[in-house]
Structure to design on (911 residues):
């Protein structure tokens, strides 16, 4: 009986979340029909001319489509990998730090950028990497000619991945630190008594202790594989780096909102959502298989 | 484990929440299995609740979607009768004051850096809106505002997409076409005939009907065209004359001279600070254009238009080829030649190394790091006031240079109109925006020019000027300064709205000798506003005698296929050209671009242009 009341409580708490989900995720889904229409705003969803798969046909005809899908995947995968490895490494290093005050300070400082928007950060980055910026200043000491970083298609994905990692690794570190805090100190003591040094303890106690968290985060981020980060790229890119930096979201924005080609933009967005959906299902399956991940 | 899930689900996107829901459902499945059948009913209830909410919201969506269009239709028919009666009772008076206050809802572009409004005044309630209220008894209500430029365009696009237009607003070419196609606009043919003031009609006549033509579809007028001065589309070379003098150089006449001067500006420390921190030629900022195009022909600041045209290359323009057939300028061999030149300049460090990456191209001009840039006539308004504030010796002069191989200056010429005031279909008083523009056109010169409040705060403002205003004024100012003409000689020319003021102000800011245009022949501090305009007119219009070769585009609007393909073709063009100039791709990528351009719709578009020209 007690259990039953408990469950009711839970469902009540779900209501705001559900309302949000329905309003912002389910209702807008009706807009998907635009992908199959020559959309005319005055006629609306239901009376615009139905053109079937024409938009998708044109989408596959365009050279752009291939480029933006590849760019999206390259940048998103790069971000996923680096957002797993960097915070993990950093958390492990921080965990070895014995001065608590210093540890807390570092922790706080590195996760500050997480709270700044890309509009602000992009301004800072463009200045830092500009022709007369500090980075080129350092390069000049070594006799290297100034590089216009954001005009180099080859460098752009790395700048995007790197700056995203820089912004987010502090926040992700906290998740790992939480997992690290959950490891029973007795295990370390036992290992120490058995003669294990710091490195051995890291390999045999720490890593196994947080392995489920690592796998879980890795698998969950799969659903994000087509989210390369609109606001970041939008604020940093320019036509020269379209070939390596234009992603589905920025393309959809330009096509739909700037050029008013609603159908085409929606078609690209829909394609992205379908692929993302498949990846989410896959990631859930993997999560339950490898990380024994069943939330409830 | 649960805590982790909540932590990570928080900053993630909508897809994650979809995932969350999936997980929830699977969770319910487990409960069902574990806790027996009695829970099933409860769960069914919850499920039904969810389903019914979704269904409900879907229904809402449906009704919500169809109601505006039906109401538009009904109100449209209501207007038909209403305007019928009102026309009968009241003769059309361009400046008639309404007996009862009429409200108009508008969308408004706002300049975020505009500080000219006195405290307490807003874009909705200021000197100009009160003037409109006083004279016409019209209340302007602002439905929404957006920063001018891209933000405003986006906001208009959103209003179009969501079919929620204010009563009237200012739109661009693509938007106008989209709205006409979607049937969102009121037919203004009759309204314009009845209500446009004689002066406004005269300004339109000066364009030989081309301005009204831009907004006419199937014989019906769907927008009141703005009319820009043609000088907005003529781009000249602005150069630091004080740097030239200091280094003992002549004004560069040809491209080769230009290269030499730019090189000297880079290497010989023209600003004399002992550091090699100057560059020759400014380039466009991030999102800026290398050259003006047939769709956006004017006001291309920091592009390379004169460099292209000195090589007879007109990228972005539709011209006739040797056989008299329409051809696109960007794919011609002359354009390749011009790109090769610019690429050469860039690799030698003569052009701003951060062109197209820089967020604000005025910065090096203001900071005194750039020696040459290309732009239209009105640079005296912006960015030069900041530049001379920073360095009172920054003697920027403008020339119709560089010249082509025959010693001529070529310029591509603009269309008359780039923005339109449009009225929502079904708005009860389509004549209201016309009357507001009548008032603006009549009083802009005599009344508003002395105001300190930025004229951009006038609601629904589009510039309606005499097309040759800049050239005519530049000549008149010289004649009056030389004493060959008197200001009174121009008293009857009301279509040159600001000329009277200009002639009154000129001796306030221009010092003797009157024929010397260098910066030390001016007194900007006497009246910076007047200086901006008069410096722009006298220095910025060096072609006022009309002695240059004008190149017009065959068309100035999109054809049918362009509506779907042009954005992608233009993207291909922008990307290829920038990469070639900045050395990210080899010059011969140009040939590949030409082939791609033709294949991806360019040929089709060219055909359509040929058809459009024949008509």
């Amino acid at each position: 009986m007690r259990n039953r009341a408990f469950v009711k409580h839970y469902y009540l708490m779900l209501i705001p979340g559900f309302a949000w989900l329905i309003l912002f995720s389910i209702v807008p889904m009706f807009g998907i029909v635009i992908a199959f229409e020559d959309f005319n705003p005055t006629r609306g969803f239901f009376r615009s001319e139905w053109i079937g798969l024409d938009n998708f046909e044109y989408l596959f005809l365009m050279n752009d489509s291939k480029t933006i899908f590849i760019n999206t995947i390259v940048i998103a995968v790069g971000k996923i990998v680096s957002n797993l490895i960097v915070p993990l490494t950093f958390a492990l290093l921080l965990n070895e730090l014995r001065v608590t005050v210093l540890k807390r300070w570092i922790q706080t400082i590195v996760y500050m950028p997480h709270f700044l928007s890309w509009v602000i950060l992009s301004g800072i980055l463009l200045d830092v990497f500009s022709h007369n910026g500090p980075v080129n200043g350092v390069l000049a000491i070594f006799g290297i000619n100034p590089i216009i970083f954001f005009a180099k298609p080859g460098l752009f994905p790395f700048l995007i991945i790197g700056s995203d990692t820089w912004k987010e690794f502090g926040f992700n570190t906290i998740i790992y630190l939480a997992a690290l805090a959950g490891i029973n100190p007795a295990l370390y003591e036992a290992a120490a008594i058995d003669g294990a040094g710091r490195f051995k303890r890291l390999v045999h106690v720490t890593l196994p202790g947080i392995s489920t968290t690592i796998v879980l985060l890795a698998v969950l981020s799969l659903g994000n594989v087509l989210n390369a980060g609109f606001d970041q790229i939008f604020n940093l890119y320019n036509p020269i780096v379209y070939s390596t930096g234009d992603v589905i979201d920025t393309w959809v924005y330009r096509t739909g909102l700037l050029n008013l080609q609603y159908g085409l933009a929606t078609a690209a967005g829909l394609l992205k959502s379908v692929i993302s959906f498949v990846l989410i299902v896959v990631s859930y399956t993997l999560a339950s298989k490898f990380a024994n991940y069943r939330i409830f | 484990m649960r805590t982790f899930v909540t932590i990570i689900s928080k900053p993630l996107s909508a897809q994650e929440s979809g995932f969350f829901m999936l997980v929830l459902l699977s969770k319910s499945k487990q409960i069902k299995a574990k806790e027996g059948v009695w829970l099933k009913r409860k769960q069914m209830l919850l499920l039904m609740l969810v389903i019914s909410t979704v269904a409900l919201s879907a229904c809402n969506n449906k009704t919500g979607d169809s109601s505006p269009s039906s109401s538009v239709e009904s109100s449209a028919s209501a207007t038909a009768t209403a305007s019928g009666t009102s026309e009968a009772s009241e003769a059309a008076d361009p400046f008639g004051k309404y007996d009862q206050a009429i409200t108009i809802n508008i969308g408004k572009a706002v300049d975020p850096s505009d500080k000219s409004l006195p405290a307490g005044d807003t874009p909705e309630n200021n000197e100009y809106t009160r003037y409109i209220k006083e004279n016409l008894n019209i209340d302007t209500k602002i439905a929404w505002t957006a920063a001018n430029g891209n933000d405003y365009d986006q906001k208009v696009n959103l209003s179009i997409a969501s079919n929620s237009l204010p009563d009237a607003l200012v739109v661009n070419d693509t938007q106008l076409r989209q709205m006409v196609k979607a049937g969102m606009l009121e037919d203004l043919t009759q309204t314009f005939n009845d209500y446009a003031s004689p002066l406004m009609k005269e300004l339109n006549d000066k364009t030989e009907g081309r301005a009204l033509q831009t907004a006419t579809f199937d014989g019906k007028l769907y927008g009141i065209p703005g009319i820009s001065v043609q000088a907005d589309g003529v781009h000249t070379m602005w150069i630091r004359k004080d740097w030239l003098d200091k280094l003992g150089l002549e004004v560069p006449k040809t491209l080769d001279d230009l290269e030499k001067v730019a090189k000297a500006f880079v290497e010989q420390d023209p600003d004399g600070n002992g550091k090699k921190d100057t560059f020759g030629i400014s380039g466009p900022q991030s999102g800026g254009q290398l050259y003006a195009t047939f769709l956006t022909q004017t006001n291309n600041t920091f592009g390379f238009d004169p460099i292209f045209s000195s090589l007879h290359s007109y990228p972005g323009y539709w011209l006739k080829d040797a056989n008299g057939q329409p051809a696109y300028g960007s794919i011609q061999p002359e354009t390749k030649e011009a790109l090769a030149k610019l690429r050469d300049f860039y690799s030698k460090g003569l052009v701003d190394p951060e062109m197209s990456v820089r967020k604000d191209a005025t910065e090096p001009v203001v900071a005194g790091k750039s020696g040459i840039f290309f732009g239209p006539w009105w640079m005296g308004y912006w960015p030069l006031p900041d530049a001379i504030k920073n360095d009172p010796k920054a003697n920027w002069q403008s020339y119709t240079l560089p010249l082509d191989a025959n010693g001529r200056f070529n310029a591509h010429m603009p269309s008359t109109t780039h923005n339109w005031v449009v009225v929502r279909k079904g708005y009860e008083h389509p004549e209201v925006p016309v009357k507001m523009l009548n008032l603006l056109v009549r009083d802009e010169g005599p009344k508003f020019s002395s105001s300190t409040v930025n004229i951009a705060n006038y609601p629904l403002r589009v510039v309606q000027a005499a097309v040759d205003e800049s050239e005519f004024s530049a000549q008149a100012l010289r004649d009056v300064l030389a004493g060959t003409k008197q200001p009174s000689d121009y008293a009857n020319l009301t279509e040159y709205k600001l000329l009277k003021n200009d002639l009154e102000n000129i001796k306030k800011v221009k010092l003797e000798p009157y024929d010397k245009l260098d910066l030390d022949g001016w007194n900007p501090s006497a009246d910076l506003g007047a200086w901006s305009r008069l410096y722009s007119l006298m220095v910025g219009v060096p072609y006022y005698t009309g002695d240059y070769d004008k190149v017009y585009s065959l068309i100035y609007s999109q054809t049918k296929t362009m509506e779907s393909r042009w954005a992608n073709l233009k993207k291909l063009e922008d990307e290829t050209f920038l990469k070639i100039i900045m050395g990210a791709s080899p010059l011969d990528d140009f040939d590949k671009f030409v082939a791609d351009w033709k294949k991806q719709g360019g040929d089709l578009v060219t055909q359509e242009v040929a058809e459009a020209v024949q008509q």
About this structure: The mean pLDDT of chain B is 85. The domain at 239-413+549-556 of chain B is CATH 3.40.190.10 (D-Maltodextrin-Binding Protein; domain 2).
